[in-house]
Amino acid sequence: MTEPEKYAGVRYLVDDVQAAVDFYTTHLGFALNRDAAPAFADVVRGPLRLLLSGPASSGARATPADAAVAGGNRIHLLVDDLDAEVSRLRAAGLTFRSDLVTGPGGRQILLADPAGNLVELFQPA
């Protein structure tokens, strides 16, 4: 096993790498780390390295066909003001996949990236 890196990596399968890079860097505060479009790119935000794998990437090709669609897993991003974030992202025309939900730990809403992968925006209680 290799030494731990400064980032935790998550791979998302996307159908358009550039659209995914634009989504994460423009709307969610990620910075482009590596660009090998159209096959692959990775973006970072804090300790999260998000690997964006297009259909031509080795990461996407290694995925079994029955697991190649966006699922219920999601990245979890903390926000200071969920209402303000929702308003800003709705004004940008982005797609939400849930209503605002309030629970004992805080409030959350699910946002979809261009490929349908989920991003949970969460404001702690």
CATH T-level topology: 2,3-Dihydroxybiphenyl 1,2-Dioxygenase, domain 1
Oligomeric organization of the protein chains: single chain
Name the CATH class: Alpha Beta
Radius of gyration: 15 Å
How far the N terminus sits from the C terminus, by CA atoms, comes to: 38 Å
* Structural domains: how many: 1
Measured by DSSP, the beta-strand proportion falls in: 35-45%
Strand element count: 9
Secondary structure class reads alpha+beta
Protein name: Catechol 2,3-dioxygenase-like lactoylglutathione lyase family enzyme
Pfam family, one: Glyoxalase
Keywords: Dioxygenase, Lyase, Metal-binding, Oxidoreductase
Domain VOC: 6-124
Quick structural summary:
The protein has 125 residues and is an alpha+beta fold.
What attributes does this structure have?
125 residues; alpha+beta; 2,3-Dihydroxybiphenyl 1,2-Dioxygenase, domain 1; 5-stranded mixed beta sheet; 4-stranded mixed beta sheet; 3 helices; 20% helix
Report on the structure:
With 125 residues, this protein is an alpha+beta fold. The protein has a single domain (8-124), classed as Roll (2,3-Dihydroxybiphenyl 1,2-Dioxygenase, domain 1). It is built from 3 helices and 9 strands. It has helices at 17-27, 58-61, 82-91, and strands spanning 8-13, 31-36, 40-45, 48-53, 74-78, 95-96, 101-103, 106-112, 118-124. Strands 5, 6, 7, 8 and 9 form a 5-stranded mixed sheet that branches. A hairpin with a 3-residue loop joins β2 (31-36) and β3 (40-45). It is globular and about 40 Å long.
